[in-house]
Amino acid sequence: MEILAPETAYDLCTGRLDGENVSYGKKRLAEIRSIFRDRHAADSGDGDTVVYEVGMHAEVPEGTCGGLFFGTSIIHPGMVGDEYYMTKGHFHARRETAEYYFGISGSGILLLMSEDGKCSAHRMEKGALCYIGGHIAHRLVNTGDDDLVVGACWLSDAGHDYGSIAESGFPVRVVCRDGKPTLIPGADAL
Ligand code: PAN
Ligand code: ZN
C-alpha cells in the first residue's frame, strides 16, 4: 500500500482551498442589492462589485445524508450607504442542522436569529469558534478594513433557505456610526 498525497490543500493562514472537489463562487452586488437598507445606494452601486466569495470543498453531492461540506467565506470590506458588506444570510433548509464557523482573519460580526426573530450579535475574528445550532439563521458582516475570512463546516444535506430571510430580514442591522460598527433595529429598507 502506498502513502497518498493530500487531494486537497487547506491553507491555515488564509483559508484558501485548492485541489479536488473545490469550487469558488462570487456574490456580486447586482444579486444582493435588496438585502441592504439603503435602496438608493444599493441601486446606484456598481452591480459587478464582488461583495463576498465562498470557496467550498464538496466530496459528496449536495443533499447526501451523513456527509459534510467545508468552506471558506471571504467578505470583502465595503459599505452600501452606511451599512457594512454582509452575506445574504440563511436558515438551513433542514432546520435542525447545525454548523461551525471559525474566524481566520479580519474583523466582523456574526448575526444569529432564531425562528421567532430573536437576534444576537457575536464578534468574529481570528481564533473565534462559533457553534451555530439548528433552527438559527446566520449572516456575516465585515466591519473591518480588510477581508473578513471565516471557515465553516456543515452537513451536506443541510441545504439553504434564503426565502425566509428575504421576506422578513434580520431584525438587527450593522451600520457605521461615528466610525464605529453600531447595531440598529429594523429589517426594513429605507
Ligand atoms: C456558509 C455561507 C456563506 C455565504 O458557507 O453559505 O458564508 O453566505 P450565504 O449562503 O448566506 O450567502 C454557510 O453558512 N453554509 O451553510
Ligand atoms: Zn449555513
Features:
single chain, 190 residues, mainly beta, six-stranded antiparallel sheet, three-stranded antiparallel sheet, 3 helices, 15 strands, globular, binds 5-phospho-D-arabinohydroxamic acid, binds zinc ion
Which structural class should the secondary elements be placed in?
mainly beta
- Average pLDDT works out at 96
- Uncertain segments are none
Main sheet properties: 6 strands, antiparallel
Rg over alpha carbons: 17 Å
How large a portion of the residues is in β-strands, by DSSP E? Answer: over 45%
- SS field, number of helical segments: 3
Give the distance, in angstroms, between the N- and C-terminal Cα atoms.
64 Å
- Please give the number of β-strands: 15
The coarse silhouette is globular
- Helix percentage: under 10%
Element order, helices and strands? Answer: EEEHHEEEEEEEEEEHEE
Strand order of the largest sheet: 3-4-5-13-8-11
Enumerate the distinct ligands: 5-phospho-D-arabinohydroxamic acid, zinc ion
Account of the 3D structure:
A six-stranded antiparallel sheet has the order 3-4-5-13-8-11. It has a three-stranded antiparallel sheet with strand order 10-9-12, with no helix packed on it. It contains three helices and 15 strands. A hairpin with a 2-residue loop joins strand 14 and strand 15 (180-185). The protein is mainly β and 190 residues long. The protein has helices spanning 29-32, 39-44, 163-168; strands at 8-10, 17-19, 22-28, 50-58, 68-75, 79-80, 83-84, 99-105, 107-114, 119-125, 129-132, 136-142, 148-155, 172-177, 180-185. The model has no long low-confidence stretch (mean pLDDT 96). Bound molecules: 5-phospho-D-arabinohydroxamic acid and zinc ion (ZN). 5-phospho-D-arabinohydroxamic acid (PAN) binds next to strand 5, strand 12 and strand 13.
